[in-house]
Specification:
The structure holds two protein chains of two kinds. Chain A is of the alpha+beta class. Chain A contains ten helices and six strands. In chain B, helix 5 packs across helix 9 and helix 7 packs across helix 9. Classes of the chains: A alpha+beta, B mainly alpha.
Chain lengths: 267, 181
């Protein structure tokens, strides 16, 4: 029995993951038990063989050059291509003020700088994540399997996914859901596909100084429509490249579900 | 809000390129396809570059790159076929606590890799990250976005399955047939 318990811990011992006391106990046991010592030697050998086998994989010639080339191409691309796109885009700004585009801004920043003013700042919180995660990181536009969603969302938000799916119009579905971080802030992010449009439903814990009261706010920034509201210590956003009416209708459909869920699942 | 300037590519390359071979070999073992692994590594570097202005220098660049790699592999796998892991079945649990079997000493690298590639992907990822890339259990929990207890159980089962597969091989060589442990 004692040996069996020891052996369960031998791999963690090898990985130096055991507390000092347990390490010492195992070391003492190994001195007096040739069988366990042999088992440890076998595990050590296997690990060395495994490491050597995997590390023997050689990197294809040319991969490093390809990677460097891709990064350099990407480094120059946004300043030319996306600037042209940004300049050509019909820019709708309902909120106050127009940010001035600066040369060094990334494509995300270029869009974010088009918002300003105190209320715009709170709506920008959601837009940051939509741009960072949904727009500039491309996800395959296929429905995500429900089990996948539960696994990604964890216990607190797992049950929200089917409730959202149930509220979506026909032909719309969740393509991705996860927790993510953008600019140091944690978001819970559902990415939806709605008739060819990319939609984000974003939740993030409200921080001090951020408030939208009981109202639903709407703004248009660049090609994006942003709806934001506050619910149970969270800021909630629906952001898409739909038109303003479409985005607001979708938000109105989702808001009660999200509010009820947050009421039941937040302290 | 202060917007940082885009960092220079040479700074990025200096920090990130040294990890290319580790990232590639991990991707190759997780995807089982060298061409896909190349694509995923390239995508990983692009993602990393795009968020490099938010990467805090002095923090662990290797872990940051592996985190992006793991996510990219995950999305890549989903594109074709959902291979989210086998259930933690009773059978696997039983195997995990069964006594150790002998492993052939004359085993080849090819045989080890075949046995490794046969593990369910979540177990394979845990074993690769811990036993080959030598991340701590805590770091792996962060990379895979799972609790540390899950890392420990995947490792325990993954290592166990690997030993069992190699022990089967041993039996085929005629080792350990007299009922030895």
């Amino acid at each position: 029995m004692r040996c069996e318990q020891m052996r369960e811990n031998l791999d963690a011992y090898l990985s130096r993951e055991l507390p000092f006391e347990n390490r010492r106990e195992i070391a003492r046991h190994l001195e007096n038990c040739p069988e366990c010592a042999a088992d440890l030697a076998a595990r050590t050998r296997l690990r060395q063989q495994l490491r050597a086998a995997v590390r023997a994989t050689s990197v294809p010639s040319g991969l490093e050059t390809k990677v460097r080339g891709a990064v350099r191409a990407e480094a120059v691309r946004p300043r030319t291509g996306l600037w042209a796109v940004a300049a050509a885009a019909a820019i709708v700004i309902i909120m106050t003020g127009v940010g001035i585009l600066r040369k060094q801004a990334s494509p995300e920043d270029a869009i974010l700088q088009k918002t300003s003013g105190p209320l715009a700042a709170v709506l920008k919180v959601g837009l940051i994540d939509h741009l960072h995660c949904a727009v500039f990181r491309k996800y395959p536009r296929t429905p995500a399997p429900p089990r996948q969603l539960s696994a990604e969302l964890g216990p607190q938000f797992a049950e929200l996914a089917p409730l959202i799916q149930a509220k979506l119009p026909g032909g719309s579905y969740i393509i991705e859901a996860h927790h993510c971080t953008a600019r140091g802030r944690l978001y819970t992010h559902f990415i939806l596909e709605d008739g060819g449009k990319l939609v984000s439903l974003i939740l993030t814990p409200r921080q001090s100084g951020e408030a939208m009261g009981g109202s639903i706010y709407q703004t248009g920034v660049d090609r994006f429509q942003v709806v934001g509201f506050e619910s149970h210590s969270y800021l909630v956003y629906v952001i898409s490249d739909m038109d303003a009416t479409g985005n607001l209708q979708l938000s109105a459909g989702l808001a009660p579900t999200v509010r009820l869920y947050l009421a039941a699942h937040t302290g | 809000m202060v917007f940082s300037r885009r960092p220079r590519t040479d700074e990025f390359e200096k920090a990130a390129i040294p990890h290319l071979s580790e990232l590639y070999r991990t991707a190759a073992r997780l995807l089982g396809d060298s061409a896909k692994a190349e694509d995923v590594v390239q995508e990983t570097y692009l993602q990393a570059w795009r968020s490099f202005d938010r990467f805090e220098s002095g923090t662990n660049c290797r872990a940051w790159l592996f985190k992006i790699l793991v996510n990219t592999v995950h999305h890549h796998r989903r594109k074709g076929f959902n291979l989210r892991l086998v259930k933690d079945s009773e059978e696997v649990l039983q195997q995990a606590v069964a006594p150790a079997a002998p492993i052939p000493e004359q085993i080849t690298e090819g045989e080890i890799l075949r046995a490794l590639d046969g593990l369910p992907v979540d177990y394979r990822a845990a074993v690769l990250l811990a036993d080959v890339e030598e991340f701590s259990y805590k770091e792996i929990a962060g990379l895979l976005d799972v609790p540390i207890g899950t890392v420990m159980s995947r490792l325990s089962r993954g290592r166990r399955l690997l030993r069992d597969r190699l022990a089967e091989l041993a039996r085929s060589y005629g080792i350990g047939q007299e009922g030895g442990r």
